[in-house]
């Protein structure tokens, strides 16, 4: 027997209509670097999104599921694109502006993007790529920047504001199939070509609801979220759509992502929440240590994308800012876990829960798979590869305009689960602790050493700004840890001191004997430690390694 419920498709269009009416007074504030930021209400943003949809259809001829890419910072216009493009039935494709040019070209051609909406300040990046972009017919430019860089380029060039001016403020939004494509992001592609993940209207709708639940980010229209995580990094972790559901105000940093302007915008605009990877919070901490600012409005911060060192959490606790650890991937939309401790605990009892990656919401099923393919118990001890499934988890990668979607064996199990490539344990009460990426685990004499545990312990030393640990070949043990350390300015700790600091916290046989001081840990395009670069530097003899 079927239910008697209405079958209303879960679409971004519904999120847009809801946000611009019910939460019309909520605001998107974009930092301009000038005295006054740009402020727009959700009603304005929704109306401008509607005019953008009209312009894309009537002037640029965007039709069906054509791809419209964005090469933009986090700002109100980018939110307008987030709402307009999926709602009209086209597919939004945010481009990672920190990727090497050849990867960007590959991605745009693979997705067959027909339009690129770009911020003017990014034209120096876009212009040289245009001759190689086979499918791009239109470039729309928004915000300050030198337009002459596009002189003579093949695609037609449009001014964003002129394009949307005088367009109708209504649109006959199509009734879309909730399973159809709404947006796509490519994985960072550490090995092989980047892989496209295509989000559906349904997955975005359900994911947005989860983001808004108290067990996740749990915000409402009294809150303002500072969206530092770029809109090209897994859809800004779902925030631009989730905010339109519940009227959460957005503070968008645009291109002002350095610690000093971030500290200034927090002190002035007083966001109650923020989201970003650990390196952003490390940088901000160093900034406010040198030049104190009041960050205490940020009652909660969602930190994820890479393991959060417990020492960082402690440092922010002292500033009145609570970091809440989250885990996710491009393939998981990204919300996979969040580390809110169970109710009724004292701060001391909460701590062991806060330093985990967190627990799974109802929409994410999880299992751990052991080396022999067996399903492992949730006992807090059995370590295996995490596999997940759920309505906002990818079941395949995009095959490209001409190809078929594909499911590589190392990413998808035969029975349809996503193989995350993350190794960890799950406690009896469902909290996930990740010890490593499968490819980062250090296999020493048949035993595993967690690079993350060593890094966390090192980053708790007061002299250490950053530390990354990688596996390097070893004649006797097959692999051993190499600790690369960035000292804080003026700090003097040496290897003996750091090794002594680790002893007692880390089993003796796991202590690194190879050490290198480096000026900064190399970072990926989304600000995570790039361990493959360190491994290569070591292999190429570029690191000054001390062994003792
Ligand atoms: P991406 O798709 O580029 O965002 O990368 C996803 C990967 O980032 C995951 O598979 C994890 O390896 C890593 N990651 C994300 N969040 C965390 C976290 N809280 N702790 C440790 N690793 C994380």
UniProtKB/TrEMBL annotation:
Keyword Aminoacyl-tRNA synthetase tagged: no
Gene Ontology molecular-function annotations: ligase activity, forming carbon-sulfur bonds
InterPro entries assigned to the protein according to its UniProt record, in alphabetical order: AMP-bd_C, AMP-bd_C_sf, AMP-binding_CS, AMP-dep_synth/lig_dom, ANL_N_sf, ATP-dep_AMP-bd_enzyme
Gene3D superfamilies registered for this protein in UniProt: 3.30.300.30, N-terminal domain of ligase-like
Keywords for this protein: Ligase
Keyword Ligase listed: yes
Domain (AMP-binding enzyme C-terminal): residue spans on this chain: 453-528
Domain AMP-dependent synthetase/ligase: 35-398
PROSITE patterns cross-referenced by the UniProt entry: AMP_BINDING
Family classification: Belongs to the ATP-dependent AMP-binding enzyme family.
PANTHER family: LONG-CHAIN-FATTY-ACID--COA LIGASE, MEDIUM-CHAIN-FATTY-ACID--COA LIGASE
Protein name from the UniProt record: Long-chain fatty acid--CoA ligase
Organism (species): Streptomyces agglomeratus
Species classification: Bacteria, Bacillati, Actinomycetota, Actinomycetes, Kitasatosporales
